[in-house]
Amino acid sequence: MSQSDLVIIPVMASQLDAYEASRTIKLVERQRKTTRAHIDCVIVWQRANPAIETGTAKHIRHQFEAAGIPVLNTRLVEREAYKAIFSFGETLYSLTETQVRNLQKARENARLFAEEVVERLRVPAR
Q: Domains along the chain?
């Protein structure tokens, strides 16, 4: 972590995950002070519901906003394709529609996530 440019903290829409994320952020802050280097960190929603934002997720998002904790706009949606990567030993781009459905949606979600991470690395921390 002390050598990182960006720490991405995955969070599911649960209060326990939010609590553990806050502990991780405090650890990043301690590393910043110890190394005197800037270490950016950001939350990413994982296994998110593609259709709706649950009440719990909305509550946690508001908590992060109130605390000034940055959250990526792109949520990693729970998709079968992400699980299939490990089941078949493939990548999103080598999987086929016969192995898993809705590959295009998973590929688009992963592309948006990657673009947002790259952009965050390009722009000085907020």
A: 6-122 (3.40.50.300)
